[in-house]
């Protein structure tokens, strides 16, 4: 993607002029604030803080440098316009997970708030409502592990069709965008009840544009990546509202539908209120985006690591071919088959340990919090970072090595490798994502061998490790 610059050069001087004016005229801090024992660290430059480094620098490097300089457990910074405390290590993860919705409120960066905020939402910083998640978990047959088993055969069929259409008889392909297309094809069927390949491809391109602007400074004018993302978000919202109208008309005509979007149209929220069209579109857009970005990245990097390690590829293929030999001609994968894919899932876990689909997440302090002898003031943002445990040699010996066998040798300690989060806000779609990844791996290794053409592909800095120029492979 071109133009990742967050600030055009023409804005630098005006920004520093404003910063100088602000810091010259602002009143001194109240005496009570001076007495707070804030964590060590630096707020960086006026106004912009350390945002440039956080967004563009290698994420592990950004965190590790400040852990060495200030503290291995906690430090303060200013990123994305907010005073932020970064919690590191297992104890930090556990503290956040154990105090969700008590000491901490969920919070999204302003860029995400603007991209996904509905027209009916009036506040920028507040606890993120979980109504969409609650509704989906209530919905019969969605996301709950005991309900997912009946969707495995449909998922297997869709994945097989994807490989036949976009992989078979091809030479060189770009994996990341095909992975995006696949995961959106699946969520389109199960979440939206949408089967139209052309509409799926259009949505995939729009969502891809949005993914690059999830964690940036939200400067919305032509030429910025955030402006392009806002235009794409508007188009996604319009497409979803059109789909809602189509589904309402079909259901009024007696057509039976069984997907998340239809459930949200037909059922009231916890307050007994039927959501208006724009609100449904916003909630579903957030759900589809969550099911789009992380699984596609993980799928692409699985292809990369297996392509570079023939020994591990052979073990995965042996496991998957054994499952294939147990099937009758034309018989699809089922729930029991998924439980047999133990080594394959270890490979996926190891890929997500090395390349976490999300490098961390934000919270907001609901009250003044004391942690490690320091004060985290109410309203400050709290960021916990995955790599401080997933790459810790105390938990994972030789952490930079790709070694799926490490999960067979010993159990993973709690709060270490947590690609789906932890605590009350653990990803509700983790079991769905597992089925999706394993089904992909089954068809991948039983149909293809490949060479990775750009193993050192550039990966976007910051929180989302997106392969910027894609991941090219040559199929055999």
Automatic annotation (TrEMBL):
Q: Where are the transmembrane segments?
A: 6-25
Q: How does it sit in the membrane?
A: Single-pass membrane protein
Please provide, in alphabetical order, the Gene Ontology terms of the cellular component aspect for this entry: membrane
Superkingdom of the source species? Eukaryota
One GO MF term on file is: oxidoreductase activity, acting on paired donors, with incorporation or reduction of molecular oxygen
Which compartments does it reside in? Membrane
Q: Which UniProt keywords apply?
A: Heme, Iron, Membrane, Metal-binding, Monooxygenase, Oxidoreductase, Transmembrane, Transmembrane helix
Q: Give a single Pfam family match.
A: p450
The answer on whether this UniProt entry bears the keyword Repressor reads no
Q: Enumerate the InterPro entries for this protein.
A: Cyt_P450, Cyt_P450_CS, Cyt_P450_E_grp-I, Cyt_P450_sf
* Positions with a binding annotation for heme: 427
Q: Which residues form a coiled coil?
A: none
* Biological process, per Gene Ontology: sterol metabolic process
Q: Name what cofactor the protein needs.
A: heme
User: Which family does the similarity line name?
Assistant: Belongs to the cytochrome P450 family.
Indicate what this protein is called per its UniProt record. Answer: Cytochrome P450, E-class, group I
* Organism whose genome encodes this protein: Trema orientale
């Amino acid at each position: 993607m071109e133009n990742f610059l967050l600030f055009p050069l023409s804005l630098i001087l005006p920004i520093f002029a404003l910063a100088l004016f602000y810091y010259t005229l602002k009143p001194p801090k109240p005496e009570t604030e001076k007495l707070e024992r804030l964590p060590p660290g630096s707020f960086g430059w006026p106004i912009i803080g350390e945002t440039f480094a956080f967004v563009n620098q290698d994420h592990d490097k950004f965190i590790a440098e400040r852990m060495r300089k200030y503290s291995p457990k906690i430090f303060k910074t200013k990123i994305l316009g907010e005073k932020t405390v970064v919690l590191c290590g297992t104890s930090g993860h556990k503290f956040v997970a154990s105090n969700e919705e008590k000491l901490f409120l969920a919070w999204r960066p302003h860029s995400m708030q603007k991209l996904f905020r509905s027209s009916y939402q009036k506040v920028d910083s507040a606890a993120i409502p979980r109504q969409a998640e609650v509704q989906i978990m209530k919905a019969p047959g969605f996301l709950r592990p005991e309900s997912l088993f009946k969707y495995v055969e449909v998922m297997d069929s869709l994945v097989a069709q994807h490989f036949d259409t976009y992989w078979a008889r091809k030479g060189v392909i770009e994996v990341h965008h095909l992975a995006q297309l696949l995961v959106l094809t699946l969520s389109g069927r199960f979440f939206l009840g949408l089967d139209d390949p052309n509409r799926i491809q259009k949505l995939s391109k729009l969502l891809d544009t949005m993914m690059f602007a999830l964690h940036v400074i939200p400067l919305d004018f032509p030429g910025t990546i955030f402006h392009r993302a806002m235009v794409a978000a508007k188009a996604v919202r319009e497409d979803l509202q059109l789909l809602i109208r189509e589904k309402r008309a079909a259901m009024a005509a007696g057509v039976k539908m069984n997907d998340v979007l239809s459930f949200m149209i037909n059922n009231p929220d916890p307050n007994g209120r039927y959501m208006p069209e724009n609100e449904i579109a916003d909630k579903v857009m957030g759900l589809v985006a969550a099911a789009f970005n992380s699984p596609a990245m993980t799928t692409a990097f699985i292809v990369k690591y297996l392509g570079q390690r023939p020994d591990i590829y052979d073990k995965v293929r042996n496991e998957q071919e054994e499952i294939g030999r147990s099937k009758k001609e034309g018989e699809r994968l089922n729930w029991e088959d998924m439980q047999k894919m133990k080594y394959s899932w270890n490979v996926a876990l190891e890929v997500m340990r090395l390349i976490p689909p999300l490098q961390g997440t934000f919270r907001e302090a609901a009250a003044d919090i004391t942690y490690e002898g320091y004060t985290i003031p109410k309203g400050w943002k709290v960021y916990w970072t995955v790599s401080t445990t997933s790459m810790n040699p105390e938990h994972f010996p030789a952490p930079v090595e790709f070694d799926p066998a490490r999960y067979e040798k010993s159990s993973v300690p709690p709060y270490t490798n947590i690609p789906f989060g932890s605590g009350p806000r653990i990803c509700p779609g983790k079991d769905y994502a597992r089925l999706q990844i394993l089904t992909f791996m089954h068809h991948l290794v039983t149909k293809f061998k490949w060479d990775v053409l750009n193993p050192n592909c550039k990966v976007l800095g910051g929180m989302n490790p997106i392969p910027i120029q894609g991941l090219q492979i040559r199929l055999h």
